[in-house]
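[09:14] KT: can someone run the structure on this one? pasting the chain below
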Amino acid sequence: MNKTAPAWRHGTPAKTAVVLVNLGTPDAPTAAAVRRYLAEFLGDPRVVEIPRAVWMLILHGIILRVRPKKSAAKYATVWEDAGSPLMVHTKAQTSALEQSLRARGHNLIVTWAMRYAGQGPNSITAVLERLRSENATRILVLPMYPQYSASTTATAIDEALNWVTGLRNQPELRYVRNFADDVGYINAIANQVRAHWQQNPTPALPDASYRLVMSFHGLPERNLKLGDPYFCECHKTARLVAEALNLPAESVVTTFQSRFGKAKWVEPYTEPTLIALAKQGVKRVDVLCPGFVADCLETLEEINMEVRAAFLTAGGEHFHYLPCLNEDPNWISALADLTERHLAGWPATPPNQQALEQQQARAKALGALE
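[09:31] RB: done, structure tokens below
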């Protein structure tokens, strides 16, 4: 045992907690803040799987000297008054999920953490410690990555499991591995696309001038060959969304963005594909990023600015970016369903009076409809 426990208070009611985990973000759109963030992020051996000694020389000798200033300028284009978009949406999703679960009769602690947050109060370790001090004896960790990858989901789970190691009084710890084919998640995306089409009607499909493009974050091809299921899960998500929309195969394109370094990554790459589509006569694309449940630098700057400009410059005429699910009510409902399933079997925490009344009202309304 290597960790000091908070003072034990006999008779304190045990609590259940849910922790939404996202990637992380710089504290500010400055080179110094981005450098700190990238040092932690790119220094994770789960993220960059090349010999450690070689990579540390490259990271600290080249990348952290050059990239922070360029990245900070990009962050500045999407930064909000309340902070980075990823942080803003993660907080809002947490609040919305808590409200949804309480309306269903659950009395839970619902909070959020970032995998890369230094030693700050929003790091996974700091948040779990805070929950332990509040006597949370059952903790569900929910990485906000629909498709599993060792470089995203696994490193978040590693951090949680490393924290629990050595505790005298360990909490029950569960985690969500993925939700790439979750019905609620797929339907939330499909409903978002349908709503967009109502505002911006497409030609009768299939039509050679239109494509729905689903862009996922990229992954080194080597990771796929070593057994990472991410690439396959992305394609499964894209297929299920297309099926939910009854789209013909020729109207859908699945691509991968955010390639980093000179190694070969899974293909096709997003920007070159959009340029090629424009040159082939595709006039309109609707682009969404199902692998991100919250808008961030990769969606707002890379896709909605850089890729948009590339497509239009190459001859495309209409580029529509569909925002991530963010706080969409259908998504929050799906997230609550997902959470409930993974909480199943844990002792129910008595709901508060307001939640109990809401739950009874819902039951009464449902009974009246039968």
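[09:33] KT: thanks! The mean pLDDT is 93.
[09:34] RB: yep, looked fine to me
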